[in-house]
Specification:
Elements (H helix, E strand, L loop, with lengths): L14 E3 L7 E2 H4 E3 L5 E10 L12 H13 L15 E9 L8 E8 L10 E8 L5 E8 L5 E4 L4 E4 L4 E10 L13 E5 L4 H18 L5 E3 L4 E4 L7 H9 L2 E2 L6 E5 L4 E4 L4 E8 L3 E7 L2 E3 L10 E3 L2 E7 L4 E6 L2 H11 L3 H14 L2 E2 L1 E4 L1
């Protein structure tokens, strides 16, 4: 029997299998401190130095207005002039400022075209203030843009790869203002789980308490719900060091029994705790092939007949033999072995799993993407 399950490197028709048991993972990899997060910044600016691939000023009036305002600020009067440059493009600049970023540190920015520019390759972003949700300027961006995509056009053909109207500036923004608040300003430390689960939260609290009993002689953690664990920091311990110590503790996260299906690529992901009640499965495919082979009918020589096309259609129907297999999965290995015995393609396995879920025999959540 040929195997039908593939490794994750297979893109089309792959079946990804979860491990038999969850491995111990650091707490810092499955949870984060509530309130310690990035903040989003946004700004509007101009990109110059483009080789004729910028905005058409007639079609992008905001680019022309921005260019006139910038030149007026620099003492160049162009009011009333009919600007024709194609080397300037209006762009939106976005960035994420990390928590506790200090003044003078640098962050990456993303630049995206707003007008009808065809490419930002070779352009340079001019000084652009980046503001937060409170309308305060937190960073200033400027620098040459790195664009991975390109576009080449001729009279009869156009070649485009990637997105040439968007790019990045590594370390392109300089932080000018710190985000209000610090680690010491956070009252009670709360760990937020990336994948909420009651058992995982309890395991995190138990691991932290076992460590704190040895380290501080007291319990400092308690699970509040399936998403968060509350920590009580000892008074004589630095908060950064306290978070660093508990972040290295290892727990075995628990995951719900879940089957994820991507019908576009034929990918199936089965969790380790998925079980199937005893069911009998049969699956067969009906293939109908319609072939059109038109024939040309020629009249006799020197006759008054006409040459016509006579349609000819051939229809073939073939149904594959379906085998009945009994599938019962008390664990992942047994389930995979049972599905392999039926001998199906990944697309057929997707149909079978959906049918088993409808029958109530699949003891897991079925997520179809």
């Amino acid at each position: 029997m040929r195997p039908i399950f593939a490794i994750a490197t297979c893109v089309i028709g792959a079946l990804l299998l979860g491990g038999p048991a969850a491995a111990a993972t650091r707490i810092k990899d499955i949870a984060s401190i509530q309130g310690v997060r990035d903040n989003q910044l946004i700004g509007y600016g101009l990109v110059t130095g483009l080789s004729g691939t910028g905005d058409t000023l007639r079609n992008s009036p905001f680019t022309e207005q921005s260019l006139q305002s910038m030149l007026d600020y620099m003492g160049v009067n162009v009011r009333g002039s009919n600007l024709r440059t194609r080397n300037v493009a209006a762009v939106m600049v976005t960035a994420n400022i990390p928590a506790f970023a200090g003044v003078g540190s640098r962050i990456d920015v993303t630049v995206s075209s707003m007008g009808d520019a065809t490419s930002l390759r070779g352009g340079t972003l001019l000084v652009t203030p980046l503001t937060g949700g409170d309308a305060q300027v937190y960073a200033v961006a400027q620098g040459p843009i790195a664009v991975s995509g390109f576009s080449a056009q001729g009279e009869a053909e156009t070649l485009t790869q990637g997105v040439p109207t968007a790019g990045r500036i590594p370390n392109g923004a300089l932080v000018e203002r710190t985000v209000p608040g610090g680690l010491r300003d956070i009252g009670r430390l709360v760990l937020q789980l990336h994948n909420p689960d009651f058992r995982t939260a309890a395991s995190i609290a138990d691991a932290i308490n076992a460590y704190s009993m040895r380290r501080f002689g007291r319990r400092v953690a308690g699970e509040r719900d399936f998403r968060s664990v509350v920590l009580e920091r000892p008074a004589n311990v630095n908060p950064a060091r306290f978070i660093a110590e508990i972040g290295e503790l290892r727990v075995a996260p628990d995951t719900p029994a879940r089957v994820v299906i991507d019908q576009r690529t034929g990918t199936v992901v089965i969790g380790a705790d998925v079980q199937i009640s005893t069911v009998a499965v049969t699956h067969g495919n009906l293939t109908v092939r319609v072939t059109e082979t038109p024939m040309v009918s020629q009249p006799e020589p020197f006759s008054e007949g006409q040459t016509v096309v006579v349609p000819r259609t051939e229809v073939q129907a073939r149904e594959q033999t379906g085998r009945v297999g009994i599938i019962e999965g008390s664990n992942l290995q047994t389930l995979v072995r049972g599905l392999n015995q039926v001998g199906l393609k990944p697309s057929d396995i997707i149909s079978i799993l959906q049918a088993i879920k409808t029958s109530g025999a699949l003891q897991a959540d079925l997520v179809v993407q």
